[in-house]
Amino acid sequence: MVKIAKFLKPFILGLVMAVVLLFVQAICEINLPNYMSDIVNVGLQQNGIEHAAPKAISEDGMKLMTTLMSESDKKLVNEHYMLVAASDKNEKGEEYSSLYPKAGSMLYVLKDVDESTLDSLDTAFGTATWTFINVMKDMAEKSGQASQEDMTSVKDVDISKLYAIQPVLDMMPEQALSSARDKALVNDITILKQSGVMLARAFYKELGVDINKIQTSYIIRVGSLMLAIALLGGVATVLVSLLSSKISSGVARNLRKELFNKIENFSNREFDKFSTASLITRCTNDVTQVQVFLIMGIRMICYAPIMGIGGVIMAVRKSVSMSWIIALACIVLIGVIMVMLSIALPKFKAIQKLVDKLNLVARENLSGMMVIRAFGTQEHEKDRFEKANDELARTTLFINRVMSFMMPFMMILMNGVTLVIVWIGAHQIAESALQVGDMMAFLQYAIQIIMSFLMISAMFIFVPRASVAAGRIDEVLKTEILVKDPENPQSFDESKKGLVEFKNVSFRYEGAEEYALTDISFTAKPGETTAIIGPTGAGKSTIAQLLLRFYDVTEGEILVDGVDIRKVRQKDLRRKIGYVPQKGILLSGTIESNIKYGRKDASHDEVETAAKVAQALDFISEKPEGFNSPIAQGGTNVSGGQKQRLSIARALATKPEIFIFDDSFSALDFRTDVALRKALKEHTGGSTVIVVAQRVSTIMNAEQILVLDEGRIVGRGTHKELLKTCPQYYEIASSQLSREELA
Ligand code: ADP
Fold first, then answer.
1. Residue 520 near ligand 1, beta carbon < 6 Å
2. Which residue segment(s) compose the domain that 281 sits in?
3. In 10 A of CB 260, how many CB atoms?
4. Which of 43, 267, 400, 422 is 20 to 30 Å from 634 at the Cα level?
5. pLDDT over 90 (residue 220)
6. Whose C-alpha lies nearest to ligand 1, atom 15?
């Protein structure tokens, strides 16, 4: 996987942006439950009152609260509240009377304070509230009455009842108060503050504050904020999707381009190493695997950990006492995922191989359909295909079965976790140790955490697949191409045109034990035809391929126009050569475009001449569209012999200095063969012609004939000479020619 990381380099900016956006998205999503909890806790339960320290409080209220406070809290409160006249006829007074219509003549208002002071004041008022609750409880216990109304659960506190207790509090020894205060401090600080709000609300009510208005405005404020954050998260999500698609498809495009460029430069040795089908799979399927991984990976690899870790932090902040539920759920989840993956992962890897195998069988079957039908082996092939197909289906099914447990398991886990959280949370809420909103938020965090673990585990499926694909791509990319252009290419000797010299050339195919060619030396001169004949497997085509530098010689050297072909650019070398392969290969297009393939600027006359020499004019003119007749992909709409003639025309149109006809006349009938050779002789004029042939009649008139056997030259000379001197040649000739011709 690391191997193809360099392909991400051009997209580094997009990648950084995606990660930043993922952070934004994750942070937004992590914060949403928090706001929801605020709406429930403050907005609904506390009527939108956020602070235990009221903004304004009546004189009686202040007296009651300060009686309950410790000396230091009292000092703090005195410092930050000031006594004002509510009915002053000045601006301030009017403001107070509109805000607090039921206020008496004087009231305490909170000065401008910073956050931390407000926090301390909240704690002071909260502690006072709990001290009050504890005092009430104590009194109830002492008087033997059943606990009166539980203050913590009463929504509307009757303020007059509170003030009725003031004289009792005044009489109370300081010790009793401080012990009640100590008990109050046992509570969680947030619970202290939240309970403080209850009394604050009573004090606001006493002053005639419109609590409904406070509540509505709080809910609207937090609600809009929540909406905005959700929107921001949504926008980030869309942008991340956009970026990740852009990056992954860009990487895929570059990978394909790089692969294609590399393969374009492959010599035959490299093609021998990878099969064509495997190269196609690598360029398409494997690249897609990497692309899919990137799309998922960019989103998940960054997002899941942020969500997971962020979720844990936020959940713990909401309720430390319930964190164990999440820990337990995660341990169970990881355990189950590990077990499942350990079962399924090896199978995932196997699938890749099975797909390859199925491809192989399918490809062989399709390309060899004729042979299979001719030999009536459909049944056998069907079995072979079915075996591969079944195996793939079985493995896929197995994986799906294992994975099908995942969903119900996840549902059980999530619902179980929900149940436990609600159960335990409800008890804590009843004990005033937790607020409803916090429990709801905790629940959402728990689910977020579980989901993030699930996403991470999904990566375990994509990573191995993608890494296999990346490995296969890399294998192609890092293949060393042996046939390379020299660093300082030489140019050809212009005085010699088309002179080919083989000097002691030996060649062995990669991995082969035997030499395909041994000590081959010959010279093919311009204006002459050099023919190579010999039994199949003698090495005739190998000579042609070496001259084209599809392979490099193992020993010896090949000179063209006096220059070693390894010292010139491959492009320059091949431009000199018109090569007609054994199997005519055409590309999709028209007849004209195929003939012009080697020289795009050839005129129509030249194309026509080439076609004429190649004896292709007859069948071309029979077609209604003539030279513009379409050629299907792979040239399937012309016959083998027509293909060969068009290939020959293509080579002729380039007007090369050297012609190589690699057994190019084999699919022609004798009459065409004769006519073609005659026309060729006239047309090729000063070029060097190298003809590989099986038929003696094709090469009888060649200036030089090389007889090849098991990679060695066993005879050379003209037809006549060879009949006398070379028994192998005589053997071939006598099997093909009549007695008269042999003489
Ligand atoms: P001819 O054209 O005379 O029929 P070739 O030149 O095609 O013979 O092959 C010569 C020898 O090299 C044969 O024994 C053949 O099996 C072997 N050969 C041909 N192509 C390859 C290859 N790509 N890899 C390994 N061996 C090969």
1. no
2. 251-477
3. 12
4. 267
5. yes
6. 537
